[in-house]
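Can't paste images in this forum, so I'm doing it all in text. The chain is below; anyone willing to post the predicted structure tokens underneath?
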Amino acid sequence: MIPSPTELSYFIEVAKLENLSRAAQKLGISQPSLTISMQRIEKNLSVKLFIRHKKGMVLTKTGKILLLHAKQLLQEWETIKPQILAPLRQVQGQVSIGCNASVALYCLSDILKKNLLHYPKLEIQLLHAVSRHVTECVIDLSIDIGIVVNPIKHPDLIIHKLGEDEFKLWSSAQKNKLNDLDGDEAVIICDSNLAQSQWMLKQLKKKKINYKRVIYTTSLELVAQMTMKACGVGILPARVVNSLYPKQLLSIGKTPIYLDEICLIYRSENKNVMAIKQLVQSIKEYFSGI
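Text version of the structure:
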């Protein structure tokens, strides 16, 4: 085991005064505690650091080597320590945020603009993937903050519900046979990677709502655009529609609806990192205001 900075500072004081009693008095600790600390260092390094005699103690050759390096180590520690503690005291450094690209479209610009203006030492990295993957990345520490839907519970995660969203069927106001579910030529447009899309397709079959073809894409923005252009019926979350085409797209009534919970997730050990704490608060405030 490596000696702690405190143990090294004790060792330096004992080496300087060559007397345990005087060193303990100067350090403000009991002599037995200081003796135990010196013995622990010797045990951990498997060397003898001091030669003890009636008047006190002197360093062995290995003790002199440790003294030289102990001073250097403590100097380096004093340089490193402020850098380690800085993220706990200031909003600075890099923070990674993961979410679906469509979620980023309707919320991140406002959230990040405010924080980037106020905190010049803050750096943001954005990563976009489906909620399942973002959650896994937050758990394994490769992403700091996630905005996800329906996250799995995990003992290391703090999960805060931000709001709800509804996956629905949408169509353009321009009607044709491609977006007419009462006919037999309807086309469904959806993101095949989303569990919500898969559930909706199963429900349509179960309810015997007719469609002839399905166009799969991995972009909800493209689903929304193609739906707006009357290429078919889109499976989309309401928040995405309201951010992109609030007037051009209409929800189709009497069709299945998939209810999502939008959640903020981050690891419990990051809750006191100031940059993460600030961004978490900003995300909560944004969603509480919409």
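The radius of gyration is 31 Å. The first helix runs from residue 5 to 17.
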